[in-house]
Design goal:
151 residues; Alpha-Beta Plaits; 2 domains; two-stranded antiparallel sheet; 8 strands
Length: 151
């Protein structure tokens, strides 16, 4: 279903000049603070765990809507955590009880309710600034070019 909707961020509202699909609507609801009880954070994953392995494991607790292992963009290797979305809050709680502290591919998992991603604050990037050699005053504040020498 496609629709034009007002989108609000930090109190500002504007109308989109484009259509919004269901995926966008889901992300907008997450920004607005809807419950995320059915979405689980899964930490301490083995680097060998795939999306399919994660989905198959959590399917023991109920219907898995999605399962995603987060990969490093530069190396293509798992970052050791992922997200599983269950079809209901009850199934998510069951999955937490079933998998938190239990082993998958030789590692005990840390399973918690997922929280919305917090806004990142800008960093200084690159330069830490300041420090280093300040340089000397060639004239040594004497008003002449002796460089502080008395000869």
């Amino acid at each position: 279903m496609l629709t034009n909707l007002p989108i609000g961020i930090i109190g500002l509202v504007w109308y989109t000049p484009y259509t919004v699909d269901q995926k966008d609507l889901h992300n907008i609801h997450l920004l607005e603070g809807d419950s995320m009880a059915a979405k689980l954070f899964v930490g301490s994953l083995s680097y060998n765990v795939t999306d399919q392995m994660l989905s198959d494991a959590f399917a023991q607790a109920g219907t898995v809507v999605s399962a995603k292992v987060i990969m490093d963009r530069m190396t293509g290797r798992s970052k050791g955590f992922g997200f599983v979305e269950m079809s209901s809050d009850e199934e998510a709680k069951k999955a937490m009880g079933m998998w938190n502290g239990k082993e998958l591919d030789g590692r005990p998992l840390a399973v918690n309710e997922a929280r919305p991603m917090e806004p990142r604050t800008g960093g200084a990037g690159g330069y830490g600034g300041g420090g280093g050699h300040q340089g000397g005053n060639r004239h040594d504040n004497r008003g002449d070019s002796s460089g502080g020498r008395n000869w």
